[in-house]
Write a structure and sequence with these properties.
single chain; 889 residues; alpha+beta; Dna Ligase, domain 1; D-amino Acid Aminotransferase, Chain A, domain 1; 5 domains; eight-stranded mixed β-sheet; 44% helix; 15% strand; globular
Length: 889
């Protein structure tokens, strides 16, 4: 029942996964703290002598992994039985003897659970059973052993084993008792980069004290990346390590790190290289990438645990993030939040220069003029959009002076935010779109079509910059000021949270959801149609809709009901089909392809979704009741302040969503223009298909349009110079260029772009680091805890569904947690299915946040790495209050 730590008999069946791994490490001569195993036969002896097996299996049989309450109930019953049962005397004596052999005067030890189904290559039970640190004395060791045995039956462990199909009768538990290393520093080492999948890199997380603060996600550790072959430090990020886990008389406790030590590196480069050598030895011993827990005492290094890395991504392509200016500072924020992928060549060469022109024009109106325009512009690095923020000392001072000088203009523009958008920019945008919508595109020559394309992009840029310089900042400021003032000056015990006063309003995304829901409810009243919509795939329904003919499959609806469905869907798309998934106009819109929308419609058809009309009405009623109640109980300055601030926040939050929903107002027509030119170019052999035009640069498109309109060589003129397929000179064959650019784009898309460049730099202006205000974190540590911004309150656990774009919407299932780079208004229908939301980019006032709060689902935004670190099908917990996402093992 007791084995030495390095015993050859310490097999998986005898000592569990953790124990077998420690035995393997110790036998190989690695620096593992001394200790002993309490084997699985000891656990079974404890169970049999107390006659617990029948009661344990009976309780476990009642647990349903889909019903958390049953898991909790089974766990409570089993653990109560085990904690009340005595440990057999001969077993207790063996434990005391093994403990005494570890040192005199009650040495501190770690008592760790080790399950027989733990730390296997295809499974990971890490963290499901208990560990007790700094245990002193034989009696306390025995009590920790009993608690470890009982932890085999936590609700989490019961549920995970059930989902993996592991019968309760087949599991057992061993316990490892080891000397506790009073670590100066500790952490985790990965022998492959868990973020990128690179097998030639080692990643080390390090923090002060014992390693539990890192494992528990209580501290952001230092992160070092080293070359595995040489131990050379590639990068080192020293975090502000506020807390540490330290021994205490009762075990361990969290205590503050001394102020002078918080920003010191917990590992020197020499110590990190020594750890890397140990990691490489361990990987060679196991023959696969490993996740290793380590500790440092003085200059001595110890290995506490090693397990195979689960869900290691395939190695990602690496990109050279060479800066346009060697000393430049670049950031992905603002409009770039709507551009999560590398840009198409046409968008990069047409829209970005137009946006920069609009920035310069806005700067002149604001007052900063050239000072702003010269130092804030959009550029591309590896085809990703970045703001170039050249704000060095003199330039920054110049800009500050210009902003002060232009402050009256700035305040005037903010006060007129709604009028500038609703009364000026949007009507101008709509007028440009309408003027070109009335044209016969097929009969218009190619070069004039490009004039129309540029006019639409100009209007779109002006529209967005008007929102960015008015409604967006006013919405951000009004909600933030109201929330802070309410929390600090107005709210009293029993009052609702500030969020209650901001929900239940109409906005474009909510109107679009209601429209889709109403279409589904109408279809439910047509039995044949509802049956077809419920059984066909979204792609099949979309194809039938776009073909303008009734489906011909068995069970297809009657032509009359199908025709009416198409008419209603067409009306919906006319109103809402311009909402964007991505600002890049090379990406399809709902108006082009309604298939992604139809996933939500199919869910509404099931009758399981809550009516958006009822949800909004309930939120509005709660808001009005809270308003009435609070106003009745507040007098004087507090009432005046509350009314003034809440009305402003309530006014601008829906306006923000309305304005952003119209960013792509001209994109359906713009895409039709480009596709018309693309069709002509494909007919002449310049490209393979019409959408390949988006892979050309603007100058190339202009050249192609000119060739389409020019007379053929030999003198035959193009018919009317129309640029239609019948005439024009020979055009360049762009097909090899398109293929090369597509392949490059796919490689680039597989990489998560740094939020700030240089990647290990910051974003400083007049000595202030603005990195914390960026829409994604730049300091994410490796491991199973991902931190972001808690943008919608609540806590939920469920399966992750990682979606790269609308082409994957059909993979989403009701109750899953949506994980995406961003969500724009066109993603709103998926929120009806989602139990929670996690994004790479976004903040507390982003679209994702606002819609998640309306749906009352937790959201953690701005993680920077969620789509890279998480995998569809993983079970995760989203805590929208603390802003933490945890991967459950």
């Amino acid at each position: 029942m007791i084995l030495p730590l390095d015993s050859p008999e310490a097999t998986l069946e005898q000592v569990g996964g953790k124990g077998a791994s420690l035995a393997r490490l110790a036998s190989a001569g690695l620096p593992v703290p001394p200790g002993f195993h309490l084997t699985t036969p000891a656990y079974r002896r404890f169970v049999s002598q107390n006659d617990l097996a029948g009661a344990i299996l009976s309780a476990a049989a009642e647990a349903n992994p889909g019903e958390p309450a049953t898991l909790d109930r089974a766990s409570a019953q089993i653990r109560a039985l085990m904690e009340a049962a005595p440990i057999p005397e001969e077993l207790a004596g063996a434990v005391r003897q093994g403990y005494a052999a570890l040192g005199d005067d009650d040495p501190p030890v770690a008592v760790r659970s080790s399950a027989t189904a733990e730390d296997l290559p295809e499974l990971s039970f890490a963290g499901q059973q208990e560990t007790y640190l700094n245990v002193r004395g034989g009696d306390r060791v025995l009590e920790a052993v009993r608690r470890c045995w009982a932890s085999l039956w936590t609700a989490r462990a019961i549920g995970y084993r059930a989902r993996q199909g592991i019968p309760p009768a087949e599991v057992s538990l061993a316990v490892v008792v080891q000397q506790l290393i009073p670590a100066d520093a500790a952490g985790i080492l990965f022998t492959a980069n868990p973020l990128t999948g690179a097998r030639d890199e080692i990643v080390i997380n390090a923090a002060w004290g014992l390693g539990e603060a890192i494992v528990g996600g209580l501290v952001t550790p230092d992160t070092l990346v080293l070359r595995k072959e040489t131990g050379e430090v590639i990068s080192q990020e020293v975090a502000n390590k506020v807390l540490m886990t330290a021994p205490s008389p009762e075990g361990t406790r969290e205590e503050p790190v001394p102020a002078g030590q918080r920003m010191q590196a917990a590992l020197s480069s020499q110590q990190a290289a020594g750890l890397a050598r140990l990691g490489a030895r361990i990987e060679a011993l196991y023959g696969r990438p490993m996740d290793i827990e380590w500790a440092r005492r003085g200059e001595s290094l110890f290995i506490l645990q090693a397990r195979p890395i689960t869900a290691l991504p395939e190695p990602r392509p690496s990109l050279d993030w060479q800066l346009p200016r060697p000393n430049g500072r670049y950031a992905r924020s603002s409009v770039i939040e709507l551009l999560p992928d590398p840009l198409s060549p046409l968008f990069a060469t047409l829209a970005l220069p137009v946006w920069n022109d609009a920035i310069r024009y806005l700067a002149k109106i604001l007052g900063p003029g050239r000072a702003l325009a010269e130092h804030v512009r959009l550029v591309t690095i590896n085809d990703y959009a970045y703001y170039d923020t050249d704000m060095g000392g003199w330039q920054g001072a110049r800009l500050l002076l210009a902003l002060v000088w232009g402050m009256p203009n700035i305040l005037r523009m903010l006060r007129r935010a709604q009028a500038r958008w609703a009364g000026e920019a949007r009507p101008r945008y709509a007028a440009v779109v309408q003027a070109w919508a009335e044209r016969d595109l097929a009969a218009t020559p190619a070069e004039p079509l490009l004039d129309g394309a540029r006019a639409i992009v100009n209007a779109a840029a002006e529209h967005y910059l008007t929102i960015q310089s008015g409604i967006l900042p006013v919405a951000y400021m009004s909600e933030s000021v109201f929330t802070v003032a309410y929390q600090r000056l107005i709210r009293r015990k029993g009052d609702p949270p500030a969020l209650t006063f901001l929900l239940g309003f109409e906005s474009a995304p909510i109107r679009a959801e209601k429209s889709l829901y109403d279409l589904a409810m109408w279809a439910r009243g047509e039995p044949e149609l509802a049956a077809y919509l419920g059984s066909a795939t979204s792609a099949e329904i979309a194809a039938a809709y776009q073909s303008s003919s009734a489906p011909e499959s068995p069970g297809a609806p009657a032509p009359a009901s199908w025709g009416e469905f198409c008419r209603r869907l067409s009306q919906h798309l006319e109103r809402f089909g311009h909402t964007i998934y991505d600002l890049d106009f090379a990406k399809a819109l709902p108006a082009d392809d309604p298939a992604p929308l139809l996933e939500a419609l199919k869910y509404f058809l099931t009758g399981q979704a809550r009516s958006p009309h009822d949800r909004q009405a309930a939120a509005a009623a709660a808001r009005e009741q809270a308003m009435e109640s609070l106003l009745a109980r507040r007098k004087g300055i507090r009432r005046w302040l509350f009314e003034r601030l809440v009305r402003s926040a309530q006014r601008y939050a829906p306006l923000r969503e309305d304005a952003l929903a119209d960013v792509g107002l001209g994109w359906p027509l713009l895409r039709r223009i480009f596709r018309e030119i693309g069709q002509r170019l494909a007919a002449r052999g310049g490209i393979a298909q019409r959408d390949d035009l988006f892979w050309l640069e603007w100058e190339e498109v202009q050249t192609a349009a000119h060739a389409l309109a020019a007379p053929l060589r030999g003198g035959a003129p193009a018919a009317g110079g129309s640029g239609l397929p019948g005439g024009g000179e020979s055009v360049r064959d762009y097909r090899p260029v398109v293929a090369e650019r597509r392949a490059r784009w796919e490689r680039e898309r597989a990489v998560t772009p740094p939020v700030v460049l240089p990647a290990r730099g910051d974003l400083r202006f007049l000595g202030i680091d603005f990195t914390r205000w960026l829409p994604a974190r730049t300091d994410q540590a490796a491991g199973d805890t991902i931190r972001g911004i808690g943008a919608s309150p609540g806590r939920v656990s469920g399966l992750a569904r990682v979606l790269r774009g609308p082409e994957e919407f059909s993979e989403m299932r009701a109750g899953e947690i949506l994980v995406a780079k961003i969500t724009t208004p066109a993603w709103t229908p998926l929120f009806a299915l989602a139990a929670g939301v996690v994004t790479d980019v976004g903040g507390p006032l982003s679209h994702s946040s606002i819609v998640a709060r309306e749906y009352h689902i937790p959201a953690v935004l701005g993680t920077g790495v969620a789509t890279e670190r998480l995998r569809s099908g993983q079970r995760i917990t989203v805590d929208g209050d603390s802003g933490v996402v945890t991967v459950e093992k």
